């Protein structure tokens, strides 16, 4: 996935579309799955509530 899909540009502001991993820090994004968000580097998993 290209880096341009991780950010959106609105007027003069750049915003992230996906959150960073809380364990790995900035630069490592969490992957979005149907019921969870996971880090591909350290394996951190955040489950979504239904």
Question: What's the short version?
Answer:
By secondary structure, this protein is mainly β. It has strands at residues 7-10, 13-16, 20-21, 25-32, 36-39, 45-47.
Describe the protein in words.
The protein has 50 residues and is mainly β. It has one domain. The protein is built from no helices and 6 strands. The chain has strands at 7-10, 13-16, 20-21, 25-32, 36-39, 45-47. A 4-stranded antiparallel sheet has the order 3-4-5-6, with no helix packed on it. A two-stranded antiparallel ribbon has the order 1-2. It is globular, with a radius of gyration of 12 Å. The model has no long low-confidence stretch (mean pLDDT 90).
Layout: helices, strands, pairs:
Blueprint: E1 7-10, E2 13-16, E3 20-21, E4 25-32, E5 36-39, E6 45-47
Antiparallel strand pairs: 1-2, 3-4, 4-5, 5-6
Q: Name the structural class.
A: mainly beta
Q: Report Rg.
A: 12 Å
Q: Within the largest sheet, what's the order of strands? A: 3-4-5-6
What share of residues are in beta strands? over 45%
- Give the low-pLDDT segments: none
Number of helices: 0
Q: What separation lies between the terminal Cα atoms?
A: 28 Å
Overall number of domains: 1
Secondary-structure element pattern, one letter each:
EEEEEE
Number of strands: 6
Helix content: under 10%
Query: What is the averaged pLDDT score?
Result: 90
Instruction: Outline the biggest β-sheet.
Output: 4 strands, antiparallel
Shape verdict: globular
